[in-house]
Design brief:
mainly alpha; Eukaryotic RPB6 RNA polymerase subunit; transcription
Length: 89
């Protein structure tokens, strides 16, 4: 069994979000994308924020997200596309 589970990881990432705001992560797909991007950063040489002794980069990335050491920041290009779509309608 994977620890933490997807549900636990989603709760940990969305923990600091206000009730009125939309959650940062709403699906397993979002978690997979975020952790894989962080794992790629670790592979490219970024320094890990947790002990990596004997761990693969993906396991390290999951642990960093679960402990709240890494945050998900929305892609600026995505926000621009949403704004443009809203203005045209």
């Amino acid at each position: 069994m994977i620890h933490p589970s997807y549900t636990e990881l989603m709760q940990a990432i969305n923990e600091g979000v206000d009730v009125e705001d939309e959650p940062i992560v709403t699906s397993r797909y979002s978690i997979v994308l975020a952790t894989s991007k962080r794992a790629r950063q670790l592979i490219e040489g970024k320094e890990a924020m947790v002990s990596t002794r004997g761990k693969k980069p993906l396991s390290t990335a999951v642990e960093e997200f679960y402990k709240g050491l890494v945050k998900i920041v929305p892609d600026e290009n995505t926000e621009e596309v949403v704004e443009e779509t809203t203005e045209e309608e």
